[in-house]
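User: Can you predict the 3D structure for this chain?
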Amino acid sequence: MKRIIPAVITSLALAAAAVIAPAIGAAPTPPSTAGTPGWTALAAGSEPQSNPLKGFIPYQGSYSAFPYTMEWAYFPVNAVMSGPNTFNWSSVDSVLNDIASRGHQTAFRFYLDYPTKPSGIPQYLLNGGLVTHSYNDYGNNGVSVSPNYDDPNLRTAMDQFIAALGARYDGDARVGFVQAGLLGFWGEWHTYPYNGTNGQSDWFASSATQGEILSDFVNAFHTTKLEVRQPNTQNASLPIGYHDDSFALETKTSSLGWHFMDNMAAAGATNKWKTQSIGGELRPELQSCIFSTSGCPVIEDGGDNDFPGSVSQTHVSWLLNQYAFQTGYSSSDKPRALAGAQSMGYSLRATEALVPPTIATGSSASVGITISNIGIAPFYYSWPITLALVDASGAIVKTSTTSWHVSDIASGASAQFTGTFPTSGVANGTYRMVAQVTNPLSGGAPIRFANATQDSVKSGWLTLGTTTISTGGSTAASYEAESTSNTLTGTAVVASCAGCSGGAKVGYVGNGATLAVNGVTGGVASFRVAYASAVARTATVKVDNGTATSVSFPATADWNTVGTVTVNVAIPSGSGHTITIANPTGWAPDIDRITTG
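Assistant: Here is the predicted structure, written as structure tokens:
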């Protein structure tokens, strides 16, 4: 399990609580700080140049001028839909497969109307009498047409299309983000200047049609993340993120009242980034100059021309920036562009790890990692953390996929994960334990950590520590309470117990009487106490001279029926440790044994 603990973060990040989620073979682990016995501090390092589902991305293609892990694609609806509930997805799959072949995910949007491109409207709708508007704006010159979005036949077609789209691609590892497009020029949910102002007609979809499209997308996609262009009160409460197509020019809050963050504020959605992703496109006119020392010329009164300020306000994770890839930044501008890409989205840093120095052959070892999200946004997908052992030749000899998810770590928060790592089938020897957040896309880039030991032993993996697997080494052991090597004080006494290990237990612990279990071997993050108690009781438990922890022991069926609780207190590496059980103000349960590992 993991538990959220505070972290020191950058001024751009906001602290937020994270949700507790289960981990492999372990109960909740308490917060720890670097240097805690059994845990080893991990050195910080620089932010990786690229990480999945964040940073700058290009249109579909292979580029070398700038690092990236995601690509953008547009699709016309009529490329796949030729009739009611009639679809051919081969053109989409071809693009997704091409992008996946580079280990990248795709962000895509479908459109009906893209200025300067042939219409994306299915021909059967046009043949059926769908009313359209011709226009010359944006250099279109009548090439594409704007449909009547409220036409009943078009609305039915969009209902069918979105349902089929979700059935086909929701949860597809090739897909990073899906834009809820379709409506407006470029699928950007506007038909400006045809919006009912300045004497122009309003060509855009009615509120009812907009709501229907949004509802369709929400019903069709439950795993893959959605984004839509325009924040408003209609979509503010929906599980849909946003897409700012004019980033760093019309982004920050302004006196104009219509910038992206103005709309976010009006919708009450300024904190939407905590649960839903924010993407966008760096305004094309700014892409070539925003990272130069001279900056960009003013191209709009009230325009932002402020990349870091826009990142800070939006908590954006990714941006389309074709200039970075097709033309490429100069040697003087590229470091600032790289820093700009790295400043977006999540950033994960492991602060400490629990790796036992020795593990008994064929046993399971208690392991753990504490991770801070020092970025400005969460990671929005439940990709698992994978642990592995690497031998001296650099080969992975054992992996274990955990149920630990960094998506549970809010921006500015930390989480500690603990569990067990099985070593069955691993030969005796010394190994490095490594970790990565594994990309579900075959060949996809894993999430890399901002740590000095990232990629130090194995590319794509964070090195946590060294462990030796041997027949003599053991982190798993059982210690009977009635053993003569233990120390009993006060009224504490050995008593028979039919259901207990060894047929005995220690009773009358508490009210000043104590049980000290001696000679315990450590290197574990937690241990288990087996007990019998016909009534619910509490006890304090401490390791060596550490702080006593209060532990609740639920009632068992009777004084001969054994129950088990996990105590989330680390036992330092080495042998000769003492675990003391007491209760200064009342009776503790009867104790059967303590087990570690």
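The first helix runs from residue 90 to 100. The chain has a mean pLDDT of 90.
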